[in-house]
Design a protein that fits this description.
Elements (H helix, E strand, L loop, with lengths): L1 H49 L5 E3 L5 E3 L6 E12 L4 E12 L5 E4 L2 E2 L2 E2 L1 E4 L4 E3 L6 E4 L5 E5 L7 E5 L4 E12 L2 E14 L5
């Protein structure tokens, strides 16, 4: 008798514990869902600022591009152009088409952003950087596509081997405003040596 009463009491306690746990687990589930949404929101913001994220799109001149700031500025790579500085080396600069979407009249390219430098890596794994830590600003007009040539003193990649026919990756720092800044990534970009941009 005493054993069956003890078993009954144990079963009642187990049922009560299970019944009480269901609302707590439901609350925990809701808390976890809210935390997940908050984390996704933070990650999206960080992606925008750090230059991560964005969709990879084909470039008409060859290769692909990821622009995490596309909602603020549309950027198209016209091409990567090399000019000889010696028999075996040269400078490679980028020509872009930029259409500002945000209500801004300047855009900065080059230098470094969030600790990452503007850089390029050729098909042989050689790495090149530009000669400045800051951005070069260009005047733009909202809603109008404008050509931007990064061939100023510190804009190009210097001492590039003329054997570089393709840049496996180019990471270009871009600053529009505090909410839209980061790295635009180009992949498998052909280098056109001693050719004038069109």
């Amino acid at each position: 008798m005493k054993a069956s009463k003890a078993i009954k009491a144990l079963l009642v306690c187990a049922v009560m514990a299970f019944a009480g746990a269901t609302p707590a687990s439901a609350q925990l589930s809701n808390i976890l869902k809210k935390a997940q949404k908050t984390l996704e929101s933070v990650n999206n913001t960080l992606d925008k600022v750090s230059g991560e994220g964005g969709s990879e799109v084909a470039i008409p001149s060859g290769g692909t591009m990821v622009n995490p700031m596309a909602a603020a500025a549309q950027v198209e790579l016209v091409g990567a152009y090399g000019t000889s500085t010696s028999e075996n080396y040269g400078r490679v600069y980028l020509v872009l088409k930029v259409k500002m979407i945000a209500n801004e009249n300047r855009i900065g390219f080059g230098g470094s952003m969030n600790g990452a430098k503007t850089m390029a890596i050729d098909q042989d794994g050689n790495q090149y950087t530009t000669g400045t830590m800051g951005q070069y600003y260009r005047d733009v007009t909202e809603g109008i596509e404008m050509k931007v040539t990064l061939d100023d003193q510190y804009g190009p990649f210097d001492d590039v081997k003329k054997t570089a026919k393709t840049m496996q990756v180019i990471k270009l720092a871009c600053y529009i405003n505090a909410q839209n800044r980061g790295m635009i990534t180009f992949k498998n970009v052909p280098v056109q040596w001693d050719v004038q941009p069109q």
